[in-house]
Amino acid sequence: MKSAFMRNSDTLLYINKSGKSSASFFSPTMMTMNRFYVTKKGLEKVKAEYEKLRDFKRQKTMGETPNLLHSEDANPEYLAFQEDMSLLDARLAEYENILQNAELIQKPAKEKIGVVGLGATVICEVGGEQDEFTILGSLESNPSAGKISNESPVGRALLGHKIGEVITVNSSVKVSYKILKISYH
Questions:
Q1: What is the pTM of this model?
Q2: Region for residue 127 given its phi and psi (left: phi exceeds 0; alpha: psi -120 to 50; beta: otherwise)
Q3: What is the architecture of the domain spanning 110-184?
Q4: CA–centroid distance for 60 within its chain
């Protein structure tokens, strides 16, 4: 029979009678199989971070690991080590999911250049002032830098529209966006 020890709300560490343990980590984002729209630069960044974490895990597991038992109780250092490894494995699994489901954002065909799509930089008139947005996937969005997600209310509303069209986004406040210019880099 196994006994369970809960380390935090997402990590479960099992220790059986012989002292062997296994950790389980659940992440809702790991379970989704969505497409991740990324630029070439964004994909390279994800790959680099994945490699960095893989190397870190290799180094951490090659060193001396704490003993499971410290007197009759489970060794807190061992439990912390197991939790760290579980979290690291979960993060690596998330990166693997992203890499397996990544789709590069490409410049559209010539006939679709005048339509807002992923990778488009759009200049809009909002409340009498001009605002510029680049529409990217959610992994690379940074609204303070003018990079909005295709899943955001504004990004979703702009997709598929052309220069001169007015799009109204209903959130807590109704805001209208008139598309002035669309460009792809």
A1: 0.69
A2: left
A3: Roll (3.10)
A4: 24
Q: Nearest to residue 123, comparing CAs of 183, 168, 171?
A: 183
User: Could you tell me the residue ranges of all domains in the chain?
Assistant: 3-104, 110-184
* Residue 160 Ramachandran class (φ > 0 left, ψ -120 to 50 alpha, else beta): left
As given in the structure block, the two tokens for residue 161 are 């529209």
Strands (DSSP E) contained in 9-152 are 11-15, 21-25, 36-38, 69-70, 73-74, 102-104, 120-126, 129-136, 147-149
Which among 65, 45, 41, 42 has a CA at the least distance from the CA of 53?
45
Beta bridge pairs of residue 175: 169
pLDDT digits (tens, 9 = 90+) for 95-147: 999 999 999 999 999 999 999 999 999 999 999 999 999 999 999 999 999 99
